[in-house]
Structures are given as structure tokens and as C-alpha cells.
Amino acid sequence: MVMKQKILVTGSNGQLGSEIKAIAAAYPQFDFIFLSKEDLAIHHSESVKNIFALHHPQYLINCAAYTAVDKAETEKELAFQINAEATGVLAAVCKEYNTLFVHVSTDYVFDGAATSPYTEDAPTNPQSVYGATKLEGEKLATQFNPDSIIIRTAWVYSAFGKNFVKTMMKLMSERDELNVVSDQVGSPTYAADLAVAIMHIITESNWQGGIYNYSNEGIISWYDFAVAIKEACGYHCKVNPITTSQYPTPAKRPAWSVLDKSKIQQTFGIHPPQWKDSLLTCIAKLQ
Fold it and tell me: Alpha-carbon distance 209 to 94, whole Å?
């Protein structure tokens, strides 16, 4: 009897973890072990080692993250513990157990001042606590486990958890009018597409550690995104474009979040779908 390879998934109740759960049955060659934050304190080295000693996983996909961008400005220690310290712990234990490590990062490691898509080696300059903690997590992952695959993504949404698409659908069904920022530009990421991309990397057996960018194709503003949601759902709510300065938030958002995805395409043959196609797929699921 052939032993199945094991894939450990942390942060399994978040958007990405839930999307991996949803497609797990399509990969019967693997045993998936899904761990929520209640199941495992990822910053606690001994707890992580105990889980590894029990399961001996061949892969770890770290979907766990502190993602409350504005709250992070006042909860610096907690954000650092989850996004940085814990990533270092997971990377180090993966190294010890010869487990291949996939970690998810963010466009917030950049300052958003660019005018062309960010490549993986573009200079980082986070403007928020969240961005700074995620960048530190990348550095620790690379330091403790140079073989780590780090995937930077942006504007994540899905049928699960809290996200822009679900918030817009709720507000548009309740209100006559909405204001949405139009001077922050990027590319959305449907977490289901990212889940498939990660599983593609794992199943292809062409492991090449490093940082990779992934989002859906196309460049839009949050306002454009909201209008597309409105049209797809057939809402009659009026959507008004506003500037970032008209909608101040505790954490500074990057004005430009477009990621260059040629590296992940060339290395793994992954071609992300167009943002609009994925949005329609997600909305169909939600409706």
C-alpha cells in the first residue's frame, strides 16, 4: 500500500484555507490536514513541532495571517506574532522535517508609488504595520528555509469569510447609494484560483523556492470592482467614485497594487484567469 503524501494547511477557516478545503477532494493522491487557529497556535514552536511529529507532512501551506489591516496599526504585537514570528517558526520546523513550505504574502510590502506592475525583486517599502509584519514574515521564511515558496497576492475575495465582494453585495442590496475609492488601482484575486495555483505547484513536482506574484489578470480600481459587482448582481444602487483622501483609514493603502505575474507563469506554467470571469464565478456561487 502506497502511503499518501500529507499536506498540512494552517489558517484553514480563512478565505484561502476554505477554498483549498473546497477542492481537496479533487486531489485524492494527498491526505489533507486542515488546522484552524483554534487547532494550532502557529507562533508556538513546541505546538508546531508536536503537530509535525504526529503527521510528518510533506507540504505545509500557510494560509494563516493577521489580516485586519487597520486594526494592526494598534495591535502591532499581535500582527507581528502571527504574520512574522509564526512564519519563521513554521519555516524552521519545515526545514527540520524536510517539509516543503508555501507561504502567502501581500502587495502591502510595496509602497504603491509605482506606475508599472511590481516584479518580485522590486524594492519593498511597506507603509502600514500590516505590510511591515508581512514583509518580516517573508524575510524569516527565506532566512530559516531558503527553499520556501512565498506567493504575494492582492485584493483577495472568495465565497468564504469577509471580503470586498460580499460587503458590496450586502451594502448594495440595502442602500440606494455608495461611495467607493477610485484612486487605488490593482488586480483582484479570487481565492479559489489561488488555491488551484498552489495545488498546481505542489502536483507538478517542479519545486523552485523563491517569491512569486499571483493575482487575476486585469487592472482596475476599487470603484471599477464595485461597479462590476453591481452589474453582475443587477443592483440599482448608485456607486460614486471618491478619492482616498475622502475616505481616511488608520492604515495607509498602496495606491498602485498591480503585480507582474510573468515569473509564476514561466516557472510553473500558471496562467491566472481574467478578474471579471472569476468575479462572475464567485458571485454565481454566492447567489
Answer: 13
Identify the architecture of domain 5-158+190-217+258-273 in CATH: 3-Layer(aba) Sandwich (3.40)
- The answer to whether the beta carbons of residues 130 and 251 sit under 8 Å apart is yes
Cβ neighbors of 26 (< 8 A, separation 6 or more) are none
End-to-end CA distance of the chain: 43
Cα–Cα separations (whole angstroms), residue 204 to 106, 149, 201: 24, 14, 5
User: Which residues lie across from 221 on neighbouring strands?
Assistant: 185
Number of C-beta neighbours around residue 113 at 10 A: 10
Among 114, 120, 284, CA closest to 185: 114
- Which of the residues 66, 130, 157, 235 is marked catalytic? 130
Q: Quick: pLDDT tens for 191-242.
A: 999 999 999 999 998 999 999 999 999 999 999 999 999 999 999 999 999 9
Determine whether 97 is an active site residue: no
Q: Is 183 exposed, middle or buried (0-12, 13-18, 19+ CB in 10 A)?
A: middle
- Domain residue spans of the chain: 5-158+190-217+258-273
Instruction: Give the burial class of 6: count Cβ atoms within 10 A of its Cβ; 0-12 exposed, 13-18 middle, 19 or more buried.
Output: middle
Q: Which residue has the cell 499571483?
A: 214
Q: At what angle do helices 164-174 and 222-233 cross, to 10 degrees?
A: 60
Chain segment 3-24, per-residue pLDDT in tens:
899 999 999 999 999 999 999 9
Tell me the C-alpha distance between 67 and 24, whole Å.
24
In this predicted model, what pLDDT tens digit does every residue of 86-107 receive, in sequence order? 999 999 999 999 999 999 999 9
